[in-house]
């Protein structure tokens, strides 16, 4: 019963938010994560997304996880006001809708459902479209290059004066939103393998290639994914598929093609869950799926690339 699941005792939640070698600096008007090694693997954590949940939802945090209708259905969530998102806020009348998709019910039962979303209430219990109770793990490869003119020179933004960074974006078939070409981690699969596999399937249509084409594609992907990279984020994602008992967690990793030579040898072609794929200029005007805009902003900050024409916008943080 939903009432039992949502009892007063908080269940222990295992959330993979361990980050690699992070040093956080707070100075001036901005709080920008920084790493000891500029272009070695490092991690960033959007802690405000979860830490705010104990006292209610922070502005622009834990919003998509409360939207209706639930993806792929007509199910309307129980409305959860900002001040009552956090589990530490007593709400005896909380009566979330229960929903688990038929396709999910037909699959295996992965774990004990007595577990709660670490960011707070969503207005819906069950698993929705997610296969596992608790965290459902994904991986998001952020492939970037510098925008260049026909002569090969980097293009700078006329207002910020910073170089413009581009990333490979796909248009999701399920909701029509633009997103990072990522996906779910298969059981027993390493994150590094998921990142390369998902990029190949969604941005290069690798599943439809011939054996010869796949071998050539694998050689180019190996060059791209074997270089130094930045772990931009690890942890909870504000995703419209989240429920009180099942939610998305991801590892977002930036692979940067500094010269553009590797990606010049790869032709973008939408495949698998992607309807379209293209290079997109990075700026604060991006409207992306789930928390993807936040991940892209962190990449721009770390690469010292253009993000906003308004310096005050960059100082507001996430």
From TrEMBL:
Reactions accelerated catalytically: ADP-D-ribose + H2O = D-ribose 5-phosphate + AMP + 2 H(+)
Superkingdom of origin: Eukaryota
Region Disordered: start-end pairs: 53-77
InterPro entries: NUDIX_hydrolase-like_dom_sf, NUDIX_hydrolase_dom, NUDT9, Thionin
Family annotation (Gene3D superfamilies): Nucleoside Triphosphate Pyrophosphohydrolase
Disulfide bond is among the record's keywords: yes
Pfam family, one: NUDT9_N
Signal peptide stretch: 1-20
PROSITE patterns: NUDIX (PS51462), THIONIN (PS00271)
Gene Ontology MF annotations: ADP-ribose diphosphatase activity
Coiled-coil residue spans: 200-227
Domain Nudix hydrolase, first and last residues per copy: 146-302
Any single GO BP term: defense response
Keywords (A to Z) from UniProt: Coiled coil, Disulfide bond, Plant defense, Secreted, Signal
Keyword Disulfide bond (UniProt): yes
Locations listed in the record: Secreted
SUBUNIT field: Monomer. Interacts with GLOD4.
Similarity remark: Belongs to the Nudix hydrolase family. NudF subfamily.
Protein name: ADP-ribose pyrophosphatase, mitochondrial
Natural source organism: Odobenus rosmarus divergens (Pacific walrus)
Lineage: Eukaryota, Metazoa, Chordata, Craniata, Vertebrata
